[in-house]
Amino acid sequence: MFSEIDSKYAYDGSDLGAVYSKDKTVFKVWAPLAENIVIRLYHTCKDEKPYRNLPMEKGKNGVWAKTVFGNLDGVYYTYLVTNEGVEQETIDIYAKSAGVNGAMGMVIDLEKCNPAGWDSQTYVPLEHYTDACLYELHIRDFSIDPSGNFCYKGRFLAFIEKGLVNAAGDSVGIDHLKELGITHVHLMPAYDYATVDESDVHHPQFNWGYDPQNYNVPEGSYSTNPFDGKSRVAEFKRMVYALHKEGIGVIMDVVYNHTYATADSCFTKTFPCYYYRQWDGKKNLYSNGSGCGNELATERAMVRKYIIDSLVYWMTEYKIDGFRFDLMGLYDNETINEAYRRLHEINPNVIMYGEGWTGGDTPLPWEKRCMKLNARFTPDVAYFSDDFRDTVKGNNFENKQKGYVNGAQGSEDYVKEIMSGRIPHPQLPNLDKYSWTDTPAQTVNYVEAHDNLTLWDKLYYTNSTDSVEKRIKMDKLAAAMVFLAQGIPFIQAGQEFLRSKPFPGGMAFDHNSYKSPDAINSLKWNRKSEYKDVFNYYKGLIALRKAHSAFRMYDKAQIAEDLYYLDNLPQHVVGFILKNDNIFEETVVFLNPNDYPVKLHAFGEYGVYVDGCYAGTEPIRMVCGDYEMDGISAIVLGRKREEIFENDAVTD
Question: pTM to 2 decimals?
Answer without folding.
Answer: 0.97
